[in-house]
Fold:
Amino acid sequence: MKKIISVIGAVILILLLGFGIAVPIVNDHTAKKTAETLADIPLPESAELCETFSAAGKLVGNGNGMQYFGAILIRTETSELDKLQDYYQSQYPGCTVEFQPGSQIQVIEHGSFSFKTQVGGEVYYIVYAWGHDDSIFSELDLRGH
Structure:
């Protein structure tokens, strides 16, 4: 009888550990898909994709809740932000385009995140969007609390 209880306890422990490992992986994947969706948009003329970035967790605001952030960094010869915003809004409603003055991603309030690309000397823009996932994984990830 003790052996059966030990085996059941071990199985439960393994399931809990496995689920604890799977939760952040699934949420990171959701954020990565948001960035990949932006990267799949054809680039405007004379623009170059420099880097993609994604993060999952409590990134802005107060309270509890998982947030999924995806972004791309583009370099372009144009300095007309309005044209870039119109272009990306027509391709992916809900995304935002902003001038990117340095490597640090300023739109994220909690934590310090940066692009690996050394930004400077040319015109760089960040194009970002907030993803979503209504699965149980968004509720169970401790990074969202």
About this structure: The longest helix spans residues 2-39. The chain has a mean pLDDT of 88. The helical segments are 2-39, 81-91, 137-140.
